[in-house]
Amino acid sequence: MLYELATLSCPLLAVGQVAERAQVWIGDSDAKGECLGCWRTEIGTLGRLLILRGFEAPEDMTGERRRALFSANPFHAGADVTGLEMESYAPFPFLPTIRTGNRGGVYEFRTYRLKPGGLAPTLAGWEAAIDLAREYTAHLVTNLYALDGAPRITHIWAFDSLEERADLRARAYGTGVWPPKGGPEQIVEATSTIALPQGPSPLR
What would be the CATH architecture of the domain defined by 2-90? Predict the structure, then answer.
């Protein structure tokens, strides 16, 4: 399974309309892939719609990328969209497939830009720590490494609240089982965005 994370930028009051049109785009009869989640940003850069799709075949993801690039109206979003980014990812190989459904309603998207050569030690550290910090990592939706652009990973977490997130992180750090050993040393830059499900999102 490969994944695309699309980010649509738009005016704050247009996010709902853009989401409705984007849902039509990804549900078109000729569209490929499976929509896994749709969110609006709540903390971080606002006026952003995040759409996560999964693809069984690389050519399906490439076809969808071309469909958007060659369209005069990508994601059916019209003039409301002021920016469009489409990133390609593969999952950490030892993680289970993404489980949709109600995962708490508060989602965190964390992206770490890595040093060149930093992916292999990052994967090794995560694999060693994932079960040790199970109380915390049970809230991990997925962790993905980029197939294009700068070396980076993007991990998505789901919580019932920001308070739950802070409490779980504090406990995992306090016991020394988190962060994964060898992982932080590979990070050049880190960003975090809190997002909420928008519309009929399979991850909600």
Answer: 2-Layer Sandwich (3.30)
